[in-house]
From TrEMBL:
Residue spans crossing the bilayer: none
GO molecular function: monooxygenase activity
The protein's name in its UniProt record: Antibiotic biosynthesis monooxygenase
Organism domain of life: Bacteria
Keywords recorded for this protein, A-Z: Monooxygenase, Oxidoreductase
Pfam family, one: ABM
Domain spans labelled ABM: 2-90
Length: 98
């Protein structure tokens, strides 16, 4: 299994709106070949930080989705959200064990 972890920090007090957008997301990625699941987390020590973990059967499936659908997946982002500069990061992982 392959995991992509995207993290970012909200700069303008809109964390509640962003979290609600994830709860009500259109689930566009759910039918992508190789997609397993999406987990969205927020650390207790920083409510403005969001961690989005997508689980895939393989890295190629993730890369195909990312290349073809990344733009449309951001359509539900609340208007006016600003991020802490340089806080957005994507890290890629091989899943070793449950």
């Amino acid at each position: 299994m392959f995991i992509a972890l995207s993290t970012f920090e909200i700069a303008n007090d809109m964390a509640a709106e962003v979290k609600e957008a994830f709860v009500n997301r259109p689930q566009l990625v759910n039918d992508a070949p190789g997609f397993v699941r999406l987990d969205v987390l927020s650390p207790k020590d920083n409510a403005n930080e969001i961690w989005m973990m997508t689980f895939w059967t393989d890295e190629e499936s993730y890369n195909t989705w990312y290349k073809n659908h990344m733009r449309e997946s951001h359509q539900g982002v609340p208007k006016g959200v600003k991020l802490v500069p340089h806080s957005a990061k994507v890290r890629l992982f091989d899943h070793i064990t449950d």
